[in-house]
């Protein structure tokens, strides 16, 4: 008998009919004799709706604690509905909010981290044959305040519960049948991956593939939780996220392509080229709590240099203000910015053993006349910043150049 944690995302519980379908599915698993803990998200669109209400009443700046009290209600509705649907089908079930389980988190509202999970109640329920339904995305801090784990956080609840319960597998059920070489909504020729390593999945998630929340992958890697992404309502093997990096002949160099439109670029021009300048520019940015992603400092000429970096688009305006002040202080020539950028990244552990991957990427972009504005690399990824309007073209071109396209089907 296995212990399985199953997480169902927003679209999978988006209507009462779907919740009933999920209940049928859980019932089938239960009848096979496995112990089941189910984690659910809010009905699709509900979290957005709640956030919008909060914005309307608080001039776009809701108090973080109160926002958590509110958005956590989305998941509270779905756990109760699913438990009702299971009980109606003769499956004993009980629902718990994060605080009832006692999913203890730190107090960073809206982006809390899980510190520990009390498994006593859950184990007792499983022992007497109940299916336990837990609200995703939420926890409670030491003082009893409701916290939430950041958008997409139900994935992390699922994996963290699986780790705490030492489950045999954590299954993430969603509206696609696995992890694809890139977002199948953007590239119809994308292919489902049989397997992907934690390391690659972590890069994909960090670089914009929102199929799994970044923290859930971190957790799964750290505690070695067997993790699988599957379609909620279609049969299939899904994608297994694994530790092993199989050395097979067919192992592709690139496993996937990730992209995001979340960043904006800022450049400070004509900065005196002196030691300590990077610190003088980025120190005040980090003091303002703004995270910097990519950084490029150009070679100096005329004893001055240009310094470019990217931040999250939400931080663009505050970063620009901070940088303007720095520019005045340093006597720099000007500050320019651009929000119409996108970041495209190729990811794959195969890069470690292959040369020329970056140049193949640049060649494919050059063929499409796409200008590269910034580049950054790590052992298993290459990222470029390009003009946003070329994003989809770039992703498709790279998908083809790295031979990731699905074989054409008849009639294609
Ligand atoms: P859920 O509500 O179930 O948590 P999400 O919307 O968070 O679902 O995640 C599933 C979505 O992730 C898919 O519908 C797909 O568009 C998107 N996605 C982005 N990149 C990928 C990828 N590489 N593979 C599969 N899906 C991806
Ligand atoms: N309901 C939350 C969100 O929309 C958490 C989740 O779905 O994972 O972000
Ligand atoms: Mg999600």
UniProtKB/TrEMBL annotation:
Q: Does the keyword Nucleotide-binding apply?
A: yes
Q: Which UniProt keywords apply?
A: Amino-acid biosynthesis, ATP-binding, Kinase, Lysine biosynthesis, Nucleotide-binding, Transferase
- Which InterPro entries did the record assign? AceGlu_kinase-like_sf (IPR036393), ACT-like_dom_sf (IPR045865), ACT_Aspartokinase (IPR054352), ACT_dom (IPR002912), AKii-LysC-BS (IPR041740), Asp/Glu/Uridylate_kinase (IPR001048), Asp_kin_monofn (IPR005260), Asp_kinase (IPR001341)
Q: Which Gene3D superfamilies match?
A: Acetylglutamate kinase-like, VC0802-like
Q: Which ranges does the record mark as transmembrane?
A: none
Q: Where does ATP bind?
A: 7-10, 174-175, 180, 185, 210-211
Provide the E.C. number(s) assigned to this enzyme. 2.7.2.4
Q: What is this protein's name?
A: Aspartokinase
Question: What is the protein's species of origin?
Answer: Phytopseudomonas flavescens
């Amino acid at each position: 008998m296995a212990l399985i944690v199953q997480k169902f995302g927003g679209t999978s519980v988006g209507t009462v009919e779907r919740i009933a379908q999920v209940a049928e599915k859980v019932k089938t698993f239960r009848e096979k004799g496995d112990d089941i803990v189910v984690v659910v998200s809010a009905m699709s669109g509900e979290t957005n709706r709640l956030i919008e209400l909060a914005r309307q009443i608080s001039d776009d700046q809701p108090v973080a604690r109160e926002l958590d009290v509110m958005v956590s209600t989305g998941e509270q509705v779905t756990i109760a509905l699913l438990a009702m649907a299971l009980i109606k089908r003769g499956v004993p079930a009980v629902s718990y909010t994060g605080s009832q389980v006692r999913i203890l988190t730190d107090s960073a509202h809206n982006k809390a981290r899980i510190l520990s999970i009390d498994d006593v109640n859950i184990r007792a329920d499983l022992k007497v044959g109940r299916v336990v339904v837990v609200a995703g995305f939420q926890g409670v801090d030491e003082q009893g305040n409701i916290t939430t784990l950041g958008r997409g956080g139900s994935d992390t609840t699922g994996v963290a519960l699986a780790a705490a319960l030492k489950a045999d597998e954590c299954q993430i059920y969603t509206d696609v049948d696995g992890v694809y070489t890139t977002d199948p909504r953007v590239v119809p020729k994308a292919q489902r991956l049989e397997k992907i390593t934690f390391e690659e999945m972590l890069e994909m998630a960090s670089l914009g593939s929102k199929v799994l929340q970044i923290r859930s992958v971190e957790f799964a890697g750290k505690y070695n939780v067997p993790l699988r992404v599957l379609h909620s309502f279609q049969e299939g093997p899904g994608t297994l996220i694994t530790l092993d990096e199989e050395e097979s002949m067919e192992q592709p160099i690139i496993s996937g392509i990730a992209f995001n439109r979340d960043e904006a670029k800022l450049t400070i021009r004509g900065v005196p080229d002196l030691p300590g300048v990077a610190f003088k520019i980025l120190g005040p940015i980090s003091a303002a709590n703004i995270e910097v992603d990519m950084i490029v400092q150009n070679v100096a000429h005329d004893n001055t240099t240009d310094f470019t970096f990217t931040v999250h688009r939400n931080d663009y305006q505050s970063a620009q203000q901070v940088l303007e002040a720095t520019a005045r202080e340093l006597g720099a020539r000007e500050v320019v910015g651009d929000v119409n950028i996108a970041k495209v990244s190729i990811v794959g552990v195969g890069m470690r053993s292959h040369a020329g991957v970056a140049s193949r990427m640049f060649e494919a972009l050059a063929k499409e006349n796409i200008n590269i504005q910034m580049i950054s690399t790590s052992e298993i990824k290459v990222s470029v910043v390009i003009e946003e309007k070329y994003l989809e073209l770039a992703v498709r071109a790279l998908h083809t150049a790295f031979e990731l396209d699905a074989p054409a089907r008849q009639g294609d």
